[in-house]
Structures are given as structure tokens and as C-alpha cells.
Amino acid sequence: MWFDPSCPYSWLTSRWLLEVSRVRPVEVRWHVLSLSVLNEGRDEDPEGDTEGYLWVPARVCAAVRRAHGQEALGRFYTALWTTGEGDWPGDLRTALEAAGLPPDLAEAGLGNEYDDELRASTAEALRIIGGDHVGTPIVAVSEEGAAPVAFFGPVISKVPTGEDAGRLWDGTLLVASTPGFHELKGGPPRQPEPYGT
């Protein structure tokens, strides 16, 4: 899964994938897709991030991944959303400590040392899905002997659990792997419902 750590819908999709991994033979691997990178060069930032805040947690995610690997990135991502209050990520240092990682990795958010890695990870996700017509999250499924299946989303406002999560997984894979399939949309977006782990 490629995610932007500040996106509440990506957060919910990530929790859905963890639910899926309990009822289907799925192993989740974590990657960063930076909305800041995705929106570079656009006349208007669709995220409204004029101050560049979204770079900060994405850079910290890149630092975690480089220094400690994708499993640590998954732990940090979980801690980021479960150590704060409300529907926004928590404090970076607190989340790093909760994930068993050095809190000084938070300093990575203030520089541009990890920007090339963010650009490369975002480019990899866009290459896999075949263009820049998407946002976050992107999920790519690979099975031995089969071509990868990649899709944007699903964008959900409530996390299905148990077999409901599995059925959504089955249906999403079926639709996304259908030759010629491009897009499926539901009703208007709702506010994300809080989800605790």
C-alpha cells in the first residue's frame, strides 16, 4: 500500500487492509505516496497545503523506511494515527516513540534530505498504476505467476471488519483485474469515521 500519512481516507484504507489480512492470505507492505510530490508544479494545490505541512510527516515516513524498513514504517503509521486525538495524526515524536523508533527521526521532516526518496516512491506507485490520474492510497497486489493488479483506493469513510472486509477485498480485486476496467465511484464522500486499533 502506498499512502500519504496525512490523509484520513488512506488511514481508513490501511486499517481495512489489516482487517483483510486477518481473513484472507494477504501480507501488507508499506510505502509512501506523497501528496506534496503528487501536487508539485500544479497551479493550485488541491490539498490546500500552502504552507507545505504535508511534506513533514511524509519525510519522516521516508526516514523511518530508510533506517528501519517497511514493517517499522507500518508501526509508525499506526502510532501516528493512534497516539493523537481526533481525526488528525498525532505528534511525530510521540508516534515514533510509541512505534519503538528513535524520536529524533522527527527532525527529518524539517529538511529535504528524503525528498528524492519521496519522489521515487510516489513515481513507483504511479508507474504501477499507469499514470498520475489518481491520489492516495494506491494498492498493488502481486501474486506469484500473475501480473500485478493495482488500483486507487478504495476510498472508504468507515472500515469494514471481519468477513465484510474480506468481501470488499474480493470484489475490489475482481473489478480491478478485469481487462479494460478504469473507474468505479460510489456516492458523495462522507466524513471519515474514527477508527482505533
Ends: how far apart? 18 Å
Major sheet: arrangement of strands: 1-2
Order of helices and strands: EHEHHHHHEEH
Q: What proportion strand?
A: 5-15%
Strand elements, count: 4
The helix fraction, in percent, is 40-55%
Q: Which value, in Å, is the CA radius of gyration?
A: 16 Å
The helix count comes to 7
Which stretches are low in confidence, meaning pLDDT under 50 for 5 or more residues running?
none
> On the 0-100 scale, what is the average pLDDT?
89
Q: What structural class results from the helix and strand content?
A: mainly alpha
In this structure, how is the largest beta sheet organized? 2 strands, parallel
Which overall shape is indicated by the principal axes computed on the Cα atoms? globular
Would you write up a description of this structure?
- With 197 residues, the protein is mainly alpha-helical.
- It has helices spanning 8-23, 35-38, 55-68, 70-82, 92-98, 115-129, 162-176; strands spanning 2-3, 31-32, 138-141, 149-152.
- A two-stranded parallel ribbon has the order 1-2. It has a two-stranded antiparallel sheet with strand order 3-4.
- Helix 1 (8-23) crosses helix 7 and helix 4 (70-82) packs across helix 5 (92-98).
